[in-house]
């Protein structure tokens, strides 16, 4: 079977399993801090994906949030970058608004992206060079917008007393309004559908954006870090995604003037854990 069709089927199957497993008792643990949660379902979904992929494609590399491949440094061959549940807090507190996110890379270059909004049964998917889809519907190229007429996504946590807050506040003030969905993968695909004009966050891990950025690329959206660099897959990044025009406006008017400050912040936030 073609790798793209295999990956698509696998993500849908993982979502089916997830919907079943979440009806059973949830075991919740904390990771780096009391608000950083992981459940038995996050772990089981990642294990399911890893077991299936390694059985079918033993030579493929896998980087997964819940413990797989965190020491991967070279992106030779095929690399899968997996978040079994993006939006774990939403999963635990809301039972919805989370996604399975999978990016597949060939020699470090985008090959295919999948973001599965599990409870809405909506799969965003793209094979690089062949357009992006929401289920069966081909997505249109994203329209350019000006920040003043844009809804942007930013988590309010970053606007309250953080070193980055004074950089983000003027962007928020200049926008039409803000939203926060609590799943980076879903926020990125909502930029791809045009529902959001941009999404910004100072710190994400590669598995949070790997799938979404491939989908967004296919509709002409732009994804970089706050320094305007492309998003790396082997360490955390700041992330600003948007339609081309609003991304350019945010970069040139708000982020480039803070280049030295943002470079220093990167050194603090983006060292590999
Ligand atoms: P997660 O649910 O897979 O942990 C919430 O605003 C978004 O940020 C989610 O996509 C969440 O992914 C991600 N996130 C939460 N804490 C994070 C951290 N410490 N570093 C990077 N990403 C994080
Ligand atoms: Ca996760």
From TrEMBL:
<keyword id="KW-0378">Hydrolase</keyword>
<keyword id="KW-0479">Metal-binding</keyword>
<dbReference type="InterPro" id="IPR020550">
    <property type="entry name" value="Inositol_monophosphatase_CS"/>
</dbReference>
<feature type="binding site">
    <location>
        <position position="83"/>
    </location>
    <ligand>
        <name>Mg(2+)</name>
    </ligand>
</feature>
<keyword id="KW-0460">Magnesium</keyword>
<dbReference type="GO" id="GO:0046854">
    <property type="term" value="P:phosphatidylinositol phosphate biosynthetic process"/>
</dbReference>
<dbReference type="Pfam" id="PF00459">
    <property type="entry name" value="Inositol_P"/>
</dbReference>
<feature type="binding site">
    <location>
        <position position="85"/>
    </location>
    <ligand>
        <name>Mg(2+)</name>
    </ligand>
</feature>
<dbReference type="InterPro" id="IPR020583">
    <property type="entry name" value="Inositol_monoP_metal-BS"/>
</dbReference>
<dbReference type="GO" id="GO:0046872">
    <property type="term" value="F:metal ion binding"/>
</dbReference>
<dbReference type="GO" id="GO:0007165">
    <property type="term" value="P:signal transduction"/>
</dbReference>
<dbReference type="InterPro" id="IPR000760">
    <property type="entry name" value="Inositol_monophosphatase-like"/>
</dbReference>
<protein>
    <recommendedName>
        <fullName>inositol-phosphate phosphatase</fullName>
        <ecNumber>3.1.3.25</ecNumber>
    </recommendedName>
</protein>
<feature type="binding site">
    <location>
        <position position="86"/>
    </location>
    <ligand>
        <name>Mg(2+)</name>
    </ligand>
</feature>
<feature type="binding site">
    <location>
        <position position="208"/>
    </location>
    <ligand>
        <name>Mg(2+)</name>
    </ligand>
</feature>
<dbReference type="GO" id="GO:0008934">
    <property type="term" value="F:inositol monophosphate 1-phosphatase activity"/>
</dbReference>
<feature type="binding site">
    <location>
        <position position="65"/>
    </location>
    <ligand>
        <name>Mg(2+)</name>
    </ligand>
</feature>
<dbReference type="GO" id="GO:0006020">
    <property type="term" value="P:inositol metabolic process"/>
</dbReference>
């Amino acid at each position: 079977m073609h790798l793209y069709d295999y990956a698509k089927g696998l993500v849908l199957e993982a979502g089916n399993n997830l919907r079943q497993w979440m009806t059973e008792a949830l075991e919740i643990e904390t990771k780096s801090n009391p608000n950083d949660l992981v459940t038995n379902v996050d772990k089981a979904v990642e294990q399911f994906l890893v077991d299936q992929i390694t059985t079918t494609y033993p030579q493929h590399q896998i980087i997964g949030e819940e413990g797989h491949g965190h020491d991967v440094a070279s992106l030779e061959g095929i690399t899968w970058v997996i978040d079994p549940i993006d939006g774990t807090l939403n999963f635990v507190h809301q039972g919805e608004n989370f996604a399975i996110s999978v990016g597949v890379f060939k020699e470090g270059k985008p090959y295919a992206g999948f973001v599965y909004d599990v409870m809405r049964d909506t799969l965003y998917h793209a094979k690089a060079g062949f357009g992006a889809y929401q289920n069966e519907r081909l997505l249109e190229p994203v329209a350019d917008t000006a920040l003043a007429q844009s809804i942007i996504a930013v988590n309010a946590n970053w606007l309250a007393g953080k070193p980055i807050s004074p950089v983000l506040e003027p962007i928020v003030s200049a926008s039409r309004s803000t939203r926060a969905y609590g799943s980076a993968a879903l926020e990125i695909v909502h930029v791809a559908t045009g529902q959001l004009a941009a999404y910004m966050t100072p710190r994400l891990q590669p598995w949070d954006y790997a799938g979404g950025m491939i989908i967004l690329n296919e509709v002409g959206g732009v994804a970089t870090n706050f320094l305007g660099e492309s998003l790396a897959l082997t360490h955390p990044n700041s992330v600003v995604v948007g339609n081309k025009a609003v991304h350019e406006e945010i970069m040139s008017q708000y982020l480039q003037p803070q280049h030295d400050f943002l470079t220093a912040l990167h050194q603090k936030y983006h060292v590999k854990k």
